[in-house]
Amino acid sequence: MLKKPIYVTKPLLPELEDFYPYLEDIWSSKWVTNHGKYHNLLETELQNVLKVPHLSLFNNGTMGLLVALKALDLPEGSEVITTPFTFAATPHAISWSGLKPVFADIEPETMTIDPSNIEELITPNTSAILAVHIYGFPAKVEKIQEIADKFNLKVIYDAAHAFSTEIEGKGIGTYGDISMFSFHATKLFNCIEGGALTYNNSNLVDQIYSLRNFGIMNEDTIVSVGLNGKANELQAAIGLLNLECYKKEQEKRQIVKQLYDNYLSSFPFILIPKMPVNVSNSLQYYVIRIIQDGPSDISRDKVYHYLKQHNIYTRKYFYPLCTDYVPYRSLGSERTLPQAYTIAEEVLSLPFYGELKEEEVLKICALIKEAKYE
Ligand SMILES: *Cc1c(COP(=O)(O)O)cnc(C)c1O
Q1: Measured from the CA of 86, which atom of ligand 1 is nearest?
Q2: 297 CA distance to ligand 1 centroid (A)?
Q3: Are 236 and 223 in contact (CB under 8 A)?
Q4: Would the CB of 92 count as within 6 Å of ligand 1?
């Protein structure tokens, strides 16, 4: 039993003393929110880091998703095809927007939405596809775009896990109509709470700007049913500081990942999902699949509980599936979503952050082995 618990992540925070000058400046200017200078500076810097033509900052990713769905003007009550293997915010944003989530199965290599199943689920009421780059694995962006073009659908990506991910050097936020990034404290790059939308179409700039701010166009004109998605200056300052340290964090995580890979690849009951070679890994999570190879021999839950008994807190992201949440129970099952149901029983996110020490990784791996042979 470890004396100090190990959790799945630790938020990346800048040095406290580096934050003070920002606080002093914000306090003396009295400009604390509503598109302040740090807000605007962070938008520009993020646009460069993510290699996207347009970026709008938000107070959290969920607000971003809501605005994205609104900005695309989808017919009320229409169907949005999405994945059940994601965080609750994805289908919730669809439902809150008065749209109907339709759940497609995932494909086993990347655990992202299966394009062939998307095509089967399209009806005359389908208006959009909301795919997720789960754990930073890019969804099948080319095939999804082909389907969208063929059936005249909008495409939104939930890129909450894919900060700085690139496909052959191209920013992941440039695919589809709009992508959403989350800058929540548990995400690699964070503003404590925050998010962003990225998009190519310059016609969306003004629309997203006003939807994010109550639909206000100017002092005298309100043009749309907006909400409050504005990030404040403190969030923006944390973001600017974290932009200076996320790369270092990724380098440290790369070392931790290598250690896990080395130890765990020799365990026959563990499958380590592999990032495609042309994709840069965001290093948001370290996820394994525990393959049940005998009736009561080993299982994800057994490893989860065994580690917990030893003060190591892993997470079963993304179990349960969204189709097992109360509001969506009638919208999918093991029969309609066989891959998603299998994989949700197998996945385990292991502790993963730059400060995780080699001996801690070793200990975690040794305990996983013990769980199997105890
Ligand atoms: C974190 C997350 C969100 C929500 O982001 P918030 O910034 O917390 O609102 C949405 N989708 C996925 C897949 C996430 O992991």
Answers
A1: 13
A2: 34
A3: no
A4: no
The C-alpha atoms of residue 42 and residue 54 are separated, in whole angstroms, by: 13
Cis, bond preceding 320 (omega within 30 deg of 0) = yes
Type of residue found at 23:
L
Kindly list the distances between the CA atom of residue 139 and the CA atoms of 90, 310, 333, in Å, as whole numbers in the listed order: 14, 35, 22
Q: Ligand 1: which of 59, 62, 165 to mutate, most ligand atoms within 8 Å of CB?
A: 62
The separation between CA 251 and the C-alpha centre of its own chain, rounded to angstroms, equals 20
Residues near 45 by beta carbon (within 8 Å), at least 6 away in sequence: 240, 243
Q: What is the mean pLDDT of the chain?
A: 96
Is 60 exceeded by the pLDDT of residue 296? no
Check whether 81 has a pLDDT greater than 80: yes
Q: Is 87 in the pocket of ligand 1 (CB under 6 A)?
A: yes
Ligand 1 site, residue 139, Cβ cutoff 6 A: no
Return the ligand 1 atom nearest residue 193 CA: 7
Q: Is the CB of 70 under 6 A from ligand 1?
A: no
Beta strands in 201-341 (DSSP E): 216-218, 221-222, 270-271, 286-290
CA of 354 to the centre of ligand 1 (A): 21
Q: Does this model's pTM top 0.90?
A: yes
Percent of the chain with pLDDT strictly greater than 90: 94
Locus of tokens 């190879």:
293
Give ∠ CA 114-111-150 in degrees, rounded to 5: 25
Distance CA 40, CA 48 (A): 13
Give the distance (Å) from ligand 1 centre to CA of residue 19. 25
1 pLDDT band, cuts 50/70/90, is low
Q: Is the CB of 299 under 6 A from ligand 1?
A: no
pLDDT in tens, 309-353: 999 999 999 999 999 999 999 999 999 999 999 999 999 999 999
Q: To which H or E segment does residue 180 belong?
A: strand 178-182
DSSP state letter for 189: S
90 lines ligand 1 (CB under 6 A): yes
